[in-house]
Design brief:
Elements (H helix, E strand, L loop, with lengths): L4 H10 L9 E4 L3 E5 L3 H10 L11 E5 L8 H18 L3 E4 L4 H7 L8 E4 L13 E4 L2 H10 L2 E4 L2 E8 L8 H12 L7 E6 L8 H11 L6 E4 L3 H7 L3 H4 L12 E6 L6 E3 L7 E3 H4 L6 E5 H4 L2 H11 L9 E5 L3 H10 L1 H8 L2 E2 L20 E4 L15 E4 L2 H10 L11
Helix pairs in contact: 2-5, 6-7, 12-14, 12-15
Length: 419
């Protein structure tokens, strides 16, 4: 019997000769990430454990993104200072303060490489699976123990195979693919499972698109969401393909279920209030009044996403009284967007540009919603109260849907606007 991708990666890391679904393996993660929200709690846990030094500080990075710039006084005195103390006390030199969103930085800095095991104190750590990296979120107590010992146990998850065929049609993107999947398998359909993307259609997805899909695999409860490693993966990480070509399932690997999607048959989709798996075709929600549009997040804040939206908005104005907020995922994306003219396009269209950070996605300032206001967001969650009051409404869509909707002031089909 062959092995799935998650089995192969965990076997390689734990030096196990063989694994079965449900087995417990002792892994030695290749990289750890902590972001600013959890720094004080991690500091407390390490103190309680009486940890004096970490197993390997070079494998650790601290990202300041959720509370940067500091939104309320406690963010500075509590989270920011705790992160600085962590770095100084334990010799962690990889501190990234205000450079952008942790998950995007993790692959920008090549901290989460194909075939490695990475853990972080955030659920959307599944993002790095776009490059065939086993990556999953853990709690602060687990993180404290893993940083101290250099080890972490995992139960080998079962897996769902997703076969991709065909090519996207005009106006359809990676966000539409993952939302379609979420609508099909629901928010608990991959609980503690590996979602593994294979097939000829994979090559039609850029690395940014793969990160988008893997990011939201978490919304189905996935332990990880893995893409096969191919030429694009090797080019992105400046690696030799032969060194990572093993990151693909064996032909006779055993999967819990198999799903097949023809990219050419997909259409723009939205996750509607109040759940990520409440997915509807654009045809069902077109014309819904919105008060705000948010372009950004670790899901859709890449340069590619900025380009998609800018091409729709070029030379046009957003609807009167609509708040259009743009937050590039990282400083690198911000600078490249300026160079490409995308930021100028957004400003001339009437947008508001904010510093790279998690921002509105995690309920920080930059456009929080009031009662009965609705937003079209490119983020990954639309839970009640996520971006404002409990009576606000969140629709999740692609950058193309976001741009088209910003122009019209109502949820709109980008296929009617894209050139």
């Amino acid at each position: 019997m062959g092995y799935t991708m998650v089995e192969k990666i965990l076997m390689k890391n734990s030096k196990s000769g063989h694994v079965n679904v449900g087995d417990i393996v002792i892994a030695k993660p290749d990289m750890f990430m902590i972001h600013d929200i959890y720094t004080p709690y991690l500091l407390d846990a390490l103190k309680e454990m009486e940890t004096e030094e970490l197993d390997d500080p070079e494998k650790v990075t601290i990202m300041f993104d959720h509370c940067m710039p500091t939104a309320v006084p406690d963010n500075d005195s509590y989270h920011y200072r705790a992160g600085i103390e962590l770095g100084e006390k334990f010799g962690i030199s990889k501190l990234h303060i205000g450079e952008g969103i942790c998950h995007t930085l993790m692959h920008e800095y090549r901290y989460a490489k194909p075939g490695t095991v990475v853990t972080a104190t955030d659920s959307h750590t599944t993002t790095y699976g776009g490059a065939g990296c086993f990556c999953t979120g853990i709690g602060t107590t687990e993180m404290a123990a893993a940083l101290t010992t250099g080890e972490l146990w995992f139960k080998v998850p079962s897996a769902i195979k997703v076969i991709l065929k065909g090519k996207f049609k005009k106006g359809v993107y990676a966000k539409d693919l993952i939302e379609t999947i979420l609508g099909d398998i629901r928010s608990d359909g991959a609980q503690y499972k590996s979602i593994e993307f294979v097939g000829e259609g994979v090559k039609e997805l850029s690395m940014s698109a793969r990160f988008t899909v893997a990011n939201m695999g978490l919304e189905a409860g996935a332990k990880c969401a893995l893409f096969i490693a191919d030429e694009q993966t090797a080019d992105y990480y400046d690696m030799k393909l032969e060194d990572i070509s093993w990151i693909q399932p064996d032909d006779d690997a055993e999967y819990e279920r198999t799903l097949i999607y023809d990219l050419g048959e997909l259409e723009p989709s939205l996750s509607c209030p109040q759940g990520v798996d409440n997915v509807h075709s654009i045809k069902e929600v077109v014309g819904k009044k919105i008060h705000e549009v948010y372009l950004g997040s670790c899901t859709n804040g890449s340069l590619e996403d900025m380009k998609i939206a800018a091409e729709i908005l070029k030379g046009k104005k957003v609807a009167p009284y609509l708040k259009f907020i743009v937050v590039p995922a990282t400083n690198k994306v911000f600078k490249e967007s300026i160079k490409a003219g995308y930021i100028q396009t957004f400003i001339e269209a009437g947008g508001v540009i904010s510093h790279p950070a998690c921002a509105l996605c995690c309920g920080m300032p930059y456009g929080l919603l009031a009662d009965d206001e609705a937003i079209l967001s490119t983020a990954n969650r639309n839970f009640i109260g996520r971006m404002g009051t409990k009576k606000s409404l969140i629709y999740l869509g692609s950058p193309a849907v976001a741009a088209a909707s910003a122009l019209n002031g109502v949820i709109s089909d980008p296929r009617e606007l894209e050139s």
